[in-house]
Write a structure and sequence with these properties.
globular, 39% helix, binds acetyl coenzyme *A, alpha/beta, branched-chain amino acid biosynthesis, binds 3-methyl-2-oxobutanoic acid, amino-acid biosynthesis, binds magnesium ion, Double Stranded RNA Binding Domain
Length: 517
């Protein structure tokens, strides 16, 4: 039986970015978008063009960089938002304006303070306006999961009549349960007289941990687009995870009559990239992309897998991009192997000089570490790019003494506005001592909101990747640092965050206060 296409709409760069602290710069968005294009995602929602000048620029840059996927911008049902989306998407090979308005009684009454009639009127006007600027328009009924079915039928019919070719049914607050949600989507498709003129889509949030289950229930009921994010990143508890949807569809071809065009071998590198850029580590037991997803610890399982892999594995690790290194990168590798592996990971360099900087760091790392994994390369490039931004502070040297029964002492040499300064400080631990020493020079008066360490690969020679989040006067910045020595990685991350605080460069976060490295 021939399968129907299931459109994969990735919203990592828009809804994913709405996770507090997950903001991305324009260049980071382009880097992730190019990876999503490689993954063969059908639609990339690049941002919310009207949200801020930074996000407008990011949507524009993604639209101008990506040709293999459709690029989309979100817009409220307001002319100014739709015009901004249309303008940002003008350079796209394939663009889409995604406009939305809430349809649940609670949102219409308290948030929009509009009557249902006014909401329908606004939705129709928004779709018409968007169609005047772009021939591909998606309309979403925000909070559809808590909306009345009769009203949904009415507004969806009107939106299709006005020119929307995709109708999205979001479970905005993650309230739905799979069986009733599937029934609701099926009922909508049956009852809306012009439903055959649009693709029905779902966008599920994970507040009850059911985003993927709800999405698949809707697919079974006739939805042919799923909105999802890498690693399930997204507002609050996140969105449906792309990798879980894609692999569920692929693994259960026996009972699902849809297929996607995703090249799953890029899933793990994309997951790593998103995690590195946002500073959100992936939990070890996360389906598909967690480091334990294909690991077997117990004897009976190990025995079974050794005798016949499928006894305990329903997917092959290599099919989703685990350990795809055909060439092992190490200290004897040259520039060509390095460049080619980065190319496979979707990382391109703006100049030969940038490649050379990254290659020099790679050689330093290879001296410390036997084998360089893809994850190391992602971290290394992020580190090079983070270091390349406006450098008010620079780590020149550091030494930390940490002995049993003694208070740790850090001696740090910091480059500050062209001068080198030496300081020392004690702290409750080695990292605390280093941060205190750096602060003696920086005197940032910023609050440390988050400090997290993540081992990039396994083994004691693994690189540690550190995220530091600082907050000052409502402005939040992330700093990233990677090194085989986690205290040095911590110092780099702290300095990186201080440099971000010192720079006023354009950031994309909707509220303009969260900044990433
Ligand atoms: C479910 C979702 O994920 S929806 C997308 C959520 N994402 C974001 O909000 C990130 C981007 N947002 C932003 O940058 C800002 O909120 C902006 C630029 C869009 C708007 O900022 P402001 O003009 O300061 O408005 P503010 O955010 O305080 O309030 C939202 C306004 O939009 C209205 N609104 C909300 N949704 C819609 C909609 N779909 N269509 C029309 N108006 C809407 C609200 O009723 C409110 O109107 P009011 O100012 O008349 O009370
Ligand atoms: C804007 C819409 C699609 C959304 O993100 C939601 O309803 O969750
Ligand atoms: Mg959402």
């Amino acid at each position: 039986m021939s399968k129907q296409p299931l459109i994969i709409f990735d919203t990592t760069l828009r809804d994913g970015e709405q996770s507090p602290g997950a903001s991305m710069t324009r260049d980071e968005k382009v880097r992730i978008a190019l990876m999503l294009e490689k993954l063969r995602v059908d639609v990339i929602e690049a941002g919310f063009a009207a949200a801020s000048p930074g996000d407008f620029e990011a949507v524009k840059a993604v639209a101008e960089s990506v040709t293999g996927s459709r690029v989309c911008s979100l817009a409220r049902a307001l002319d100014r938002d739709i015009e901004a989306a249309g303008e940002a998407l003008a350079g796209a090979a394939q663009g889409r304006i995604h406009t939305f308005i809430a349809t649940s009684p609670i949102h219409m009454q308290y948030k929009l303070q509009m009557s249902p009639e006014q909401v329908v009127e606004r939705a129709v006007a928004a779709v018409q306006k968007a169609r005047g600027l772009c021939d591909d328009v998606e309309f979403s009924c925000e909070d559809a999961g808590r909306s009345e079915l009769d009203f949904l039928c009415r507004i969806v019919e009107a939106a299709i009549e006005a020119g929307a070719s995709t109708i999205n049914i979001p479970d905005t607050v993650g309230y739905a349960l799979p069986v009733p949600f599937g029934e609701m989507v099926g009922e909508l498709i049956r009852r809306v007289p012009n439903s055959d003129k649009a693709v029905f889509s779902v966008h599920c949030h994970n507040d009850l941990g059911l985003a993927v289950a709800n999405s698949l229930a809707a697919v079974n009921a006739g939805a042919r687009q799923v909105e999802c994010t890498i690693n399930g990143l997204g507002e609050r508890a996140g969105n449906a995870s792309l990798e879980e949807i894609v692999m569920a569809v692929r693994t259960r071809q026996d009972i699902l009559d849809v297929e996607t065009r995703i090249d799953a071998t890029h899933i793990v590198p994309t997951s790593r990239l998103v995690s590195t850029v946002t500073g959100f580590p992936v939990q070890p037991n996360k389906a598909i992309v967690g480091k334990n997803a294909f690991a077997h610890e117990s004897g009976i399982h190990q025995d079974g897998v050794l005798k016949h892999r499928e006894t305990y594995e329903i997917m092959r690790a290599e099919d989703v991009g685990w350990h795809t290194n055909a060439i092992v990168l190490g200290k004897h590798s040259g520039r060509n192997a390095f460049r080619s592996r980065l190319d496979e990971l979707g990382i391109q360099f703006a100049s030969e000089a940038e490649l050379n900087d990254a290659f020099a760091l790679f050689k330093q790392l290879a001296d410390k570490k036997h084998e360089i994994y893809d994850e190391d390369l992602q971290a290394l490039v992020t580190d090079t790019r983070a270091a390349a931004r406006a450098e008010r502070f620079r780590l020149v040297a550091m030494e930390v003494t940490s002995k049993t029964g003694e208070t740790p002492l850090a001696r740090v040499v910091l480059g500050h506005d062209g001068e080198e300064r030496r300081v020392e400080a004690q702290g409750s631990g080695p990292v605390d001592a280093v941060f205190k020493a750096i602060e003696q020079i920086a005197d940032s008066q910023a609050e440390l909101e988050l400090y997290s360490v993540n081992a990039i690969t396994s083994g004691t020679d693994s690189q540690g990747e550190v995220t530091v989040r600082l907050q000052k006067g409502g402005r939040i910045v992330n700093g990233l640092g990677a090194d085989t020595d986690i205290v040095i990685a911590s110092a780099k991350a702290y300095i990186n965050a201080l440099n971000a605080l010192a720079s006023r460069g354009a950031r994309t976060h909707p509220q303009g206060v969260h900044e990433g490295p």
